[in-house]
Design a protein that fits this description.
alpha+beta, five-stranded antiparallel β-sheet, 18% strand, elongated
Amino acid sequence: MRRGVIVLGSTAAGLAALLSFKTHSLAASEPPASTPTASTGTSPAVASGAAAGSGNTASATPTASAAPKVSAGTQAATRTVTGTVANTQYGPMQVQLTLVGTKITKVTVLQRTDDGAESDQIDANAIPRLTSETLAAQSAHIDAVSGASYTSSGYIQSLQSALDQA
């Protein structure tokens, strides 16, 4: 009886500790960045998204990004940044980001896995999901698509390298 009370009390205390645990974002623990300018700076949100995946092992070199374009009547610069080619078991993956200021507004897949009809079918399902998650998260911290592990991994590697350049 006494052992049951101890086990029940310990379980309740552990559950309470688990439920009260709060995670902190990287941006909150990093020193504040300077205020970005319309044509050159990046926000802490983009910088923190880029810093988390610094273990990128893509084998290609980064490609040059386009010069900022400033639209008439807007203060935010529109930039296009191309990520490195991430070589996967089923072929290369490469993404290009369009940013307005520091916000990702468009993701274009420049190269995708190309290992036959099954690879095309997987990409047709996975790439729109990965793109929509990228636009929602505004970082490379997105979930991989089930059944498309290599596509997801290559996409995220190339996305992270583009964010590192942004």
